[in-house]
Records
---
Amino acid sequence: MPLIQLVIILVVVGVILWVINSYIPMQDTIKKILNAVVVISVIIWLLSVFGIIGSLQGIHIGK
């Protein structure tokens, strides 16, 4: 994945998260949980993209 595409994806995710936090009314606890989930997901995705962790295709949630 080219670096410019990676940066564009990160900027889009950041803008979407900012819009959700700014313009959608919700409780602070829900915002914190949403932010944490998005940040953790992006970190795991970045680690996968750079090859630090293995492919995420082998991970199954549930049965």
---
Amino acid sequence: MRILDLDELESLSKKIVSYAKSEWAEVSIDSGHSANLRYAANTVTTSGSHSNTSVTITAVNGKRAGSVSTNDLSEDGLRRAVGRAEEIAALAPENEELMPPLAKKPDYPRSSAYDARSADVEWTAQQRAKIAAAAIKEASAHNFQAAGFIQSGVHHSAFRNSKGVFVGDKHTRTTFSTTMRTEDGKSSGWNKRASHSIGLLDSQSAILHASEKCNAWQDPHDMDPGVYKAILEPSAVADLVQQFGDALDAREAEEGRSAFSRPNGATAVGEKIVSEKVHIYSDPGHPLVPSGIYGESGLAVPSTEWVRDGKLQNLHRGRYWASKSGKDPLPGPTNLIMDGGGMLPEDYLTTIKEGLLITSFWYIRDVDNQTLLKTGLTRDGLYWVEDGKIQYGVANFRWNESPLTLLQNVIDFSKPVVTAPRDGWDGMPMCMPMLYVSGFNFASASDAI
């Protein structure tokens, strides 16, 4: 199936909305192509791709709404989908939180998350094959076993409501993760990269880092559980900062259900909640991690300060809760950036006096929303660093830690780099530094690799 361009999405959305007989309607369309390549045991195992255009129609009468999704783009198929949405709306219970449509088009930022060359399906297929070949070559040179996954996609999206508000956006994205293991399976190294441009994806560095980590983790030492100084690689930082960003919800805070709640419906906005060194923000037009320009109901996603000088600046706020609280709505972030220092992570590591170097996290789960406490596991490389060098591998731990505590304990950091979380949502572009923190709670030993 061919990807529809933005002009075609504009015409299609206008036609769909014209079919509606309800009080008002809105339509969201995603037209895209996704392709992947997987390798394991030093050979390519699968490769595939798919294209699809999906339409979601919501019809509204009063406080009742019905939604239907379809990829049947024929006139009959679209008319039936609109009719079915209206039938569902007639049967649905009233939703007191249902908001009216936007009547005025917001001022959308310029979309910059699209790389034309990364939208070339044949060229990106060649690049994925080259990346896999390089990983397999590196593994074979050291008698390691390589496994990995490379996924590329191009997506055009659009939103329209029956009041005439329309917005279109397009983005490209590639993610690459690779694991190197010794033939006996007792040592492992891992790395991950992501970019809106496959040409900017530093896959060779990821491959070499995974190989070096596999070699360094052989015969890991046991250490007692406890609180240790720690160095978190950018992907591990991304996982915990993403968890932090997910919790920045105004409704949860004002209803007393989050770590940012304060007595009598107040919140922590304006308070110093982490180290004054911490600056976290989102910017859809960021040159390294550009992201989506619209959110709920077609709202524009603005550049937003979340934490500056350690103080909480904003909480994202849905349209219903904004209307109830008398404040402006603020969409959640579509990317996250954390400022850092001037040295690349690999150079910054040479300045560390001592600490446990964490490659990645796995299976992160909630423990206590009131403190943002999480639990998880270290995976594929934990190391004792002393005088700027990895001295030896360390057996893995289960950990219990809060992103808030992590950010309170910041000693210093590297230059931020484009990265991606391992355990979290892969679709959020993130630029994170390597973090050096004064304490991280390693709760118990874990036998896994």
